[in-house]
Fold this protein.
Amino acid sequence: MADLNHIKGKNFKSYNNEGTLFMLNVGCNIEITDFIFEDAWCKSKGNSAFLYHTIENLSDQGEFHIRNCNVKNILMNTDFDMRLIGWNKKGLLLFLRYIRSFHWFIYSLDHKLENNEKNFLELENGVGKYGLITMTSSLNELTIKNTKFENFNKEFGIKVSKESPIKIENSYFNNSFFTRGLFSLNYFVDDSLSSTGNYTILGTTFENIYGIKGSVFDIEGYDYHNFSYNITNCIFKNNYSKYGGVIYSINDDSSKSINFTNCEFINNRSPLGNIVYSSNIKSIPNFSNIEELYEIEGAIVTNPTIIKKMNTTDDILKVYSGNTITDVIHCNIYDDFGKRINFHNNMNEVEESLSKMPFYNIKINDTDNAIIFGSKVNYCYYESCPLQKIRVVGNPGIYKITFILETFGKFMKFKNNTDTFEIEILPCPSEFNEVTDEKNNTIYINQDIESVNIKSCYIPTCNPKCANNGKCVNINVCDCDKTKFIGLHCNEYKQMKSIIGMDILIFILSIVLIISSIILMIVISVKKDNKLIKGGGFEFLIIILIGTILSYCYSMLSVIKKTEILCYATSILKNLFFVNFATILIKILRIYYIYYHRRHIVIPRFLMYIFIFSISLFHIFISLIELMKNDKLLKIKINDRNEQYEECVYSKIHDLSYIVNISIIIIGGIVTYLNRKLDKVFNEV
């Protein structure tokens, strides 16, 4: 028996295998009173508990009593599991007025102890990071009285063996975070259970405890039945958890194994069950004021237990094969009280859970005769799962569509996650000529448009609509026979058709005439000393023949499909042809000056060439200006038969060429008129 009173320890360092302050065996008894311990640094190579650790299976019971103790600033390094107090095999562990604050339990990832604390990992989650107290034998007894536990951040609080009696009285648990609850009934990797003993908790306050699944109680181990929690006159205040502000329970024995008597619940919060979140009614603990808690909105919530389709106007939906179901169909989830539950309560919640959105799938019972098209797989959001834009292509008959919730979002999976509704495929009216329009034409068409060997019954629809009085005869197919238009939607003009035979004839004649002109040029060149050729003027005749060749080229291009380049080419050829008129003009001017001018002046040949060359350059210059402007010359025109054709349309600057050409013709006509009284033909020297 060791009795330690009024002891104060500071700056303690331990390098033993267990890293434990007090290590007992062979039934030793220790009683510690008024004990203060600060600034500890311990290293352990195995499982360890800081204050109390027994290392053997003892045949005699040992006792460890703690009264009025204060432990501060503990830093531990261990290769495996650690906790503040525990690892006793047999005996009694008694706490009286124990105060704990500012502990660090450190787990070394590389199993090495070094002076640099940055190599340590503060325990928050996972193996080796349990919590306050661990007891590994069913013969243990644990009593905690008048004790305050604060500022813990662990996986869970207490782990004891099966059937161990634990009594907590007039104590205070505050400002801590447990990922799996202060009291966690759950399995571990080695199939061991935690918090499986028989608990009696009296007059204790749990305040500002935070967690994920139940801040104080996380009761899982759904197939384990040998446990009990009797909680009396306790206060639960300002606790928070994601599932169940105080209690998370999925064990069906909770209703008979967990009892809350005269307990007070103040401002506990959770998105799902401010006090309790359970898998079903069976897993709700027994409360002495259960009816009062049921009256509080959101105090007790169960996981969804069933999904059902909202009622629609008709028990059986009736549609034609291939038609979109227009009825609004929603499936909702309900808890074990029959209350509808929302998948999400607001947009922020939707955005936060995008990676865990609940998804559903729909199936039809007879896939040989019916097929679902559309959004067979979709997601649920806010209050329901909407069935959107689905079509059923099938033979006439009654079918069953099954809705299956595949993923459950933030909720646990539940068994009744399917619902079924019936749909009837009606015979297509086109088979009986039942439905016609005002012109007595059958409206519906019955065809296999999905390539599934099952016909769809549908009304022809065209989008966009058929224009110019065209008739819609199938899906986006218009009949334009009774219109002056063509195209998929009767909105295109017919192309003007040229007379192919005439085009070929013009092309061939143009080639023949070009060849003839070339032959004439050769003959004239050979016979240029001939009296008749000299009388007509050799250069004059050659220029005239060149002009005719250009006109024949213009005729050839006019029967070829027009392009922008051809528009420029035909413009130049046509204008250069008018050089012939300039040549004729200069010829008759020479005659006029010889016979009618008082001096009988002869215009020199070089002036004639300069005039002809200037006219040619002028036309080429106009065409180059149009080319540099990059204007589109090829325009679409409509003739009086509503036919479309292409035409070269030139800019206004091209009118200058017309003006020059017309001016040459007019002047030439005037000069020819003045020469009308010549009574003999002259021979040009």
About this structure: Residues 507 and 556 are 5 Å apart (CA to CA). The chain has four domains: 1-153, 156-302, 306-429, 500-674.
